[in-house]
Amino acid sequence: MKLTLLLSRPSAVIPVAMSVAALALVTIYVSIFGVAREADEGAVAHLWQLLIVGQAPVVAFFLIKWLPRAPRFVFAVLVVQALALLAALAPVYFLHL
């Protein structure tokens, strides 16, 4: 199995897409409304939380399915997924949202 073939699998791509969507939500929200604190979390915060937490079952499925078949390439895909997750978490951490 090649790394590019494994990266094209939905279970490898969906967590990265969810992280990109979460990052886009935060970026768009901050660019429109700024970083002012609100009394209550809005819909954007809840969507962001769902996107971040929703990645866990997809990553678990990816590990269960592909770790026995291609262990060497699984870790490369996990690094890509982890970097995407860190990119989505960074603005929330650094902007104290």
List key phrases describing it.
single chain; 97 residues; mainly alpha
Work out the helix count. 5
Distance between the termini: 41 Å
Low-pLDDT residue spans: none
So what's the overall shape? elongated
Number of strands: 0
N-to-C SSE series?
A: HHHHH
| Count of distinct structural domains | 1
Description:
By secondary structure, the chain is mostly helical. The protein has one domain. 78% of the residues lie in helices and 0% in strands. The protein contains five helices and no strands. α2 (10-33) runs antiparallel to α4 (55-66) and α2 packs parallel to α5 (71-94). The longest helix has 24 residues, at 10-33. The protein is elongated. The termini are far apart. The mean pLDDT is 90.
In short:
The chain is an all-alpha fold. It has helices spanning 3-7, 10-33, 43-53, 55-66, 71-94.
Helix-strand blueprint:
Elements: H1 3-7, H2 10-33, H3 43-53, H4 55-66, H5 71-94
Helix pairs in contact: 2-3, 2-4, 2-5
